[in-house]
Write a structure and sequence with these properties.
The protein is 31% helix and 24% strand. With 315 residues, it is an alpha/beta fold.
């Protein structure tokens, strides 16, 4: 554990992505062509998009990347270094390609994407748990990484380290991360698909019967719905902003929640902090690399009525 006053160390587990983003007025129809207003080449994946270093934490990344000779991994490593992310635990997979995605962002800020992930990346074996979890206050893991991350997450929980899973795709009800996690942060659509119930509250309650983890679901401008310690539904409101780019907002939410919780904030504080960070990210183009600094989040929090946000209404 870190000494008092030292920024908490967060371990992020995932698979980084090289993103090509195109801004358009509207998403082109099938079989048609469209001119983009802007092109940007950025990076995705939870270690970068979570913006934990920008928000005041110490960040290490563990996960697979492509062969040392291919170009996308070098591009991503440069960005990680500039964001003060410890990359010493990356595992190179010989002859494999680092993932690349093409992302279309329309005038409302909504994004549509396609991505290629080399199947060879899933064969990765992470470094030794003692090395990864040393001085670690929390683990943030992408839900898709269960195949190579569950044993490490289980060991982290055994050591009393929080394990936060950012869920951006539907999970199997037999997924090992459902029970290895201490906190599961879903997006609404993925929550409902995972539970097989078209209602966020009912879906959370169904999953609560399968896992002891804290459960929450983000709902964009409608805030976050979650189950408190008594099993009652509560809601943390979103911060109203004019969104121009939602790419990376979920990762920023997950990272901000993880950091604030690791700092000793309860789930209410962590959810409010995460909502503010994600809202600010949505006001800027650039995915997670457009995430806010800590001072900006604190300023937004200070401008908002504490009485409204500290204890959200029960549902």
């Amino acid at each position: 554990m870190a000494a008092p006053g030292i920024a908490p160390r967060i371990l992020c587990i995932g698979i980084p992505v090289r993103d090509l983003t195109f801004r358009v007025e509207t998403v082109p129809a099938r079989g048609s062509k469209a001119n983009a207003r802007h092109l940007a080449e950025i990076c995705g994946g939870n270690a970068l998009n979570a913006a934990i270093a920008r928000l005041g934490g110490r960040v290490a990344f563990a996960g697979p990347m492509g062969d040392a000779q291919e170009t996308s991994s070098g591009f991503i490593l440069d960005r990680m270094t500039s964001e003060n992310i410890d990359t010493s635990h990356i595992v190179r997979i010989p002859d494999a390609s680092t993932p690349v995605s093409a992302i279309i962002i329309d005038a409302t800020g909504e994004r549509t994407l396609t991505i290629y992930r080399d199947p060879a990346l899933w064969t990765v074996e992470l470094p030794d748990a003692d090395k990864l979890l040393d001085d670690c206050r929390a683990v943030l893991v992408e839900s898709r990484c269960a195949a190579f991350a569950t044993s490490l997450c289980t060991e982290a929980r055994r050591r009393g380290i929080a394990v936060i899973v950012g869920v951006d795709r539907a999970m199997s009800l037999q997924d090992s991360l459902l029970t290895a996690a201490s906190h599961l942060l879903f997006a609404s659509d993925q929550l409902q698909e995972t539970a097989g119930i078209p209602d966020d509250g009912a879906a959370l309650k169904r999953l609560a019967a399968l896992t002891p983890a804290f459960l929450a679901a983000t709902r964009g401008p409608y805030g976050t719905i979650w189950l408190n310690e008594t099993g009652a539904l509560e809601q943390t409101p979103a911060f109203p902003v004019q969104a121009v780019d939602t790419l990376g907002a979920g990762d920023v939410f997950h990272g901000a929640f993880t950091l604030r919780f690791a700092e000793g904030g309860g789930v209410r504080q962590a959810l409010r902090f995460a909502a503010a960070a994600a809202a600010l990210k949505c006001t800027r183009h650039g995915g997670g690399l457009a995430a806010p600094q800590r001072v900006e989040v604190e300023e937004l929090l200070s401008m908002s009525p504490a009485a409204t946000l500290e204890r959200a209404p029960r549902l």
